[in-house]
Amino acid sequence: MPEASLRDRRQALLERVDLIGSSFCSAYSAEADAWLVGLAERASGGDHHHLALLAVGGYGRGELCPFSDLDVVLIHRGHRDIARLADAIWYPIWDQGVHLDHSVRRPAEVLEAAGDDLRVALGLLDARMVWGDPKVAEPLIADAVEAWRHDLGGRWLADLAAQMLERRRNQGDVAFLLEPDLKEGHGGLRDANVLRAVSAYAPLLGDYVDLASLAGATEVLTRARVELHRSAGRELDRLLLQDQDHVAAALGYADADALMADVAQAGRRIAWVSEDAWRRQRFWEPQRRRPRRGRRRRPDRPEPTPAGPGHALGEGAGGQGEVEPGIVILGGEVALTPAAAVGEDSSLTWRVAAVAAERELPIARGAIHRLSDKVPPPPEPWPVETRQALVRALLAGKPAVDALESLDEQGLLSRLLPEWQAVRNKPQRNAYHRFTVDRHLLEAATNAAALADRVERPDLLVIGTLLHDIGKGYPGDHTAAGVPLVEQMAVRMGFSAPEVDTLVRMVSQHLLLPDVATRRDLDDPATVSRVAELAGDPATLHLLAALTEADSLATGPAAWGSWKAGLVAELTERTEAHLTGARAAHSRGWVTDEHRAVMREVRAADGSAVVLEPPRVVVAAHDRRGLLASVAGVLALHGFDVRSADVSSEDGVAVEIFTVEIIRGLWPDSARLRADLAAVLAGRLVLTDHLAAKAAAYAGARRLSSAHPFGTLVTFDNEASASSTVMEVRAPDELGLLHRVTDALFTCDLDVVSARVSTIGSEVVDAFYVRTAAGTKLSDASAMGRVQAAVRAAVGDRG
């Protein structure tokens, strides 16, 4: 019976659902060993004299994930036919469709490569013989480890530190991202392996940081990575949203939220230990030795320095004495004095975070552990000094994120703010948000600190922003859940009754400005009047405006841009004018004299006109029913993403002003737009066919961007406008959606006065101001039912 191929061996293991995590990796590594031994035996004719095949890197450690590379080195001592032998091993591996990272070297060449290539040096630390002559393999492995301990570890230390920082910049944090890279992200498997390598060079490292605590965290990430490979059928290290439910089910989690919470906690643990290690570098790094004889430093390689990430944070050997009661700067870290009133001063924890953020220094681990051991919950209500210390930390801005995360790692935030526990590590499983809820709140609050000069009460701004999504840790609508929580938290913090009311209003209305700005007609007096009523006063309005910007910036790149920022600013300005009795400027979407000039040209030429005024497209044409649907379809064909549409008509000529974004490529030429529009209006170009073809071309590029996508929802509001019915359509975003919906409204004999389009990840909320052919609101229930059915059919929802 022929020997099973490596591919078949792997498939047999993949079909064993009991093999997960490191157990799978060990089993697959063993199968790969057995298969390679047979392969090498046949290739060498059974003669392994002066030959050895080494497994290095992850394969050497026995951590072979389903679709990981086989990382091997063929060692020889002057074999006459080494090229033929190597090919006889490599080609069958390639035939299996297994990725191979290979090299063929003499022992001296291996050690030389380790001195020139960090990756080679790291791989050799985990080298083991798979096949061959132990007299070749064992001395080389011992020499490689010895070289690392006495020379190469020190030489490469600065590079390891720099690579960690670069991975964090490029890949972000495993703990806080919607779709983390389990291997390369900060707090991922690569960081854990680097610490193993550093400890091989510096045995004292284990005396200063808790390396043993990494085992559970790496197993969590390894299990997720193995199942990700198994599910995807290929090497994939980024845990995408579309894969999280399947991975969670395979690993026995209640749901993907539970999986991602465990991944977040594992990433936090690895990142915490890794950052701790680099901060303490001066304690564990061995005294520098001279390079061993015969190993000259390459002239292009700078002298290594003990400058790990901690050094870049201002680490030094000296202290500065007590900077405020109970707090001292020692060795470039914020520490506690021996006499610090840890169990008595409820402001101390927040003051430690404030000093760390203001000076951009890390908090000493000893201080954090001491606080964790002895700090009780603060008294109720908080003393004013305690509340002010928290505000002070948040107002320090971005550096406060790391300081507060350090406290959170040891559970201090949940002890001081018990409601925090419910949002800790909680994922937001849609592409609109990039962070877990807890990290989002910290990011938003520190964003708000940069906007403090725009508001009358900076303290309320940062506290309200910190708590605006606290309800996401609880069942039901997060705003409704958050309001009573914030009220009780604000009372407990010692805020006065009017201040509590303001914080509650901030949370209850934190979506007011972005929702209204992007979904309502700002020229309709009812819009501004409603916002003014809900905001209450100019001071609260300013707080809401700053909160909106801070929240949006922390949400993700799709949540804040010039279009949305402009609309929110305009709404804020108009609302403030309403509240103070001042006069507000007209909307920028208002028909101008320049637009009327274009309309006159259309009357004279009996055609249509297209004017590009980035970010707006102005279209003027003879008024006709269905014109908005036609123009929307042409814009979709040309790659425009419509954000708003204002429609007006004077003396038989309509002008439609679209605010747009273009996602790919450059703005098209207006002549092409005009030509396509003319072809559509003349019936020479069938939009339905062209849009369908374009949508099909892009269909394969779309992927899941929300764990809980909503279907189509059509609602009507006759209170939001004095003269029109506001119809909202919530649906998955698709190419040509605005065209299809407006065409459905046309077939229902409705006139669209204006439209607003708001995109949330891969879903949209389109608001249309509509009137009947008689110019009235849509008030008949049966008519609303017919419109609803027509719109749902146009979207493609038959439910």
Give the SSE layout.
Layout: H1 6-14, H2 21-44, E1 51-55, H3 57-60, E2 70-76, H4 82-95, E3 100-105, H5 107-116, H6 118-125, E4 128-132, H7 134-171, H8 189-201, H9 205-208, H10 214-232, H11 241-250, H12 256-279, H13 281-284, H14 309-312, E5 319-324, E6 327-330, E7 333-336, H15 348-359, H16 365-374, H17 384-395, H18 399-409, H19 412-416, H20 437-449, H21 458-467, H22 478-493, H23 497-508, H24 512-519, H25 525-535, H26 538-555, H27 562-580, H28 593-605, E8 608-613, E9 616-622, H29 627-637, E10 640-650, E11 653-662, H30 670-681, H31 687-699, E12 713-717, E13 725-732, H32 737-747, E14 750-760, E15 763-772, H33 781-795
Helix pairs in contact: 1-2, 2-4, 2-10, 5-6, 5-7, 6-7, 7-8, 8-12, 10-11, 10-12, 11-12, 15-17, 15-18, 17-21, 18-20, 20-21, 20-26, 21-23, 21-26, 22-23, 24-27, 25-27, 26-27, 29-30, 29-31, 29-32, 32-33
Strand-residue proportion: 5-15%
- As residue ranges, the low-confidence spans are 289-318
Main sheet summary: 8 strands, antiparallel
Shape: globular
Total helices: the number is: 33
Radius of gyration of CA atoms, rounded to a whole number: 32 Å
- Span between termini: 56 Å
| Oligomeric form | single chain
Instruction: Give the tally of β-strands.
Output: 15
Average residue-wise pLDDT: 88
Q: Which structural class fits the helix and strand makeup?
A: alpha+beta
State the strand order across the main sheet.
8-9-11-10-14-15-13-12
